[in-house]
Amino acid sequence: MKAAVFREVNKPMEVEEIEVSKPGPREVLVRTAAAGVCHSDMHFFNGTYPGRLPVVLGHESAGIVEQVGSDVNYVKPGDHVITCLSVFCGHCEDCLTGHMSLCQEPEVRRGHDEEPRLSHGGAMMNQFANLGSFAEQMLVHEHAIVKVREDMPLDRAALIGCGVTTGVGAVIHTAAVEPGATVAVIGLGGVGLSCVNGAAIAGASRIIAVDMVASKLELARKFGATDVVDASAGDPVGQVMEMTGGGVHYSFEAIGLKVTTEQAFQMLRRGGTATVIGMIPPGQMVSLHGPDFLMEKTIQGSMMGSNRFRVDMPRFVDFYLQGKLHLDDMISSRIKLEDVTDALLALESGEVARNVIMFE
Ligand SMILES: NC(=O)c1ccc[n+]([C@@H]2O[C@H](COP(=O)([O-])OP(=O)(O)OC[C@H]3O[C@@H](n4cnc5c(N)ncnc54)[C@H](O)[C@@H]3O)[C@@H](O)[C@H]2O)c1
Ligand SMILES: [Zn+2]
Ligand SMILES: [Zn+2]
Question: What is the pTM of this model?
């Protein structure tokens, strides 16, 4: 099968012919229909986060089941599925206490003594996030997929695989924003726009969208932003404080920077909660003003929107089909696998919401 292979940091990925193994007892082979290009792929491509190479990147996808392992009865060939990197074992402490997105059990991967899922000329090829979506096929654990209704277009379904689940989930699960609350979202890529959309679904009274790119501020209004702040025009904290008369109840950082994480905390009102979604580079520290804790301000992280994706994703599909999730507006362009490196580099400009790779 064809896959875009990442062999060296910052070097364009070539589409190569690689081998995919047969499904093990609990594995499923999925034919990829569409894959979104998320900034998390970029953090590995540009070396900000270290990873094992060579690797097939990509982790936001949807497709059709092609083959199932002997013990799989959850899906059958022909079923439409969305993938999720939050592969859960189902019996560890994290899973059993409802924190499936934190599951780290190795049993959902193949062991080092087993034949790898992907290879090239007999050499091991890594699978990013246990998925490897920048490829025609994905061989995954059965707990890495959720079945969805077949009237859901697969390109928009792909977006739910990461960005939407992360952004909406951060709002409704991690932060549990309640109706009437005020919200600020810093960074309006696929993840931040999903936070804005999630805040609208949650019934936030005011949704302040913050970005440095004018087109993003406009786009955010389609997702439910009631106010916008241009961070390129100066410190956004003062503007948010002024607009809200003392800060928001909930803020979300959806970029992955120290400075915007600090801003997210600074723009909270008394008792407010900042949720950090962005991947801050390893080794970087974040500074907070100590006395702010006396005002009962909270800061927390969010991993994949604290999802229970087998429950959440079919609901998000319904939200889209009911017109509540604006996924049509999220797709900036549909591209070919060959153009994946350009799509990653395009994220640097901030102009892109999501580029989606379409497979034949
Ligand atoms: N925690 C998780 O589980 C999880 C899941 C998915 C993605 N992520 C991370 O979330 C972040 C966002 O992902 P994305 O794909 O939406 O990214 P993106 O590149 O598409 O969007 C980032 C946005 O931030 C804006 N921006 C950049 N610097 C800014 C600044 N100083 N002030 C205001 N706006 C600024 C850009 O213009 C752009 O609109 C990334 O760090 C990604 O790795 C985390
Ligand atoms: Zn992602
Ligand atoms: Zn588990």
Answer: 0.98
Ligand 1 centroid – CA 256 distance (Å)? 6
> 190-202 and 214-223 helices cross at what angle (nearest 10)?
30
What is the CATH code for 176-301?
3.40.50.720
Ligand 1 cavity residues, CB under 6 Å: 38-40, 43, 162-163, 166, 186-192, 210-213, 216, 231, 254-257, 260, 277-279, 302-304, 347, 350, 352
CATH number for the segment(s) 2-161+306-358: 3.90.180.10
What are the residue ranges of CATH 3.40.50.720 in the chain? 176-301
pLDDT tens digits, one per residue of 81-138: 999 999 999 999 999 999 999 999 999 999 989 999 999 999 999 999 999 999 999 9
Using CA of residue 291, residue 236, residue 325, residue 142, what is the dihedral sign? negative
Element (H, E) at 171: none
For 305-320, what is each residue's pLDDT tens digit?
A: 999 999 999 999 999 9
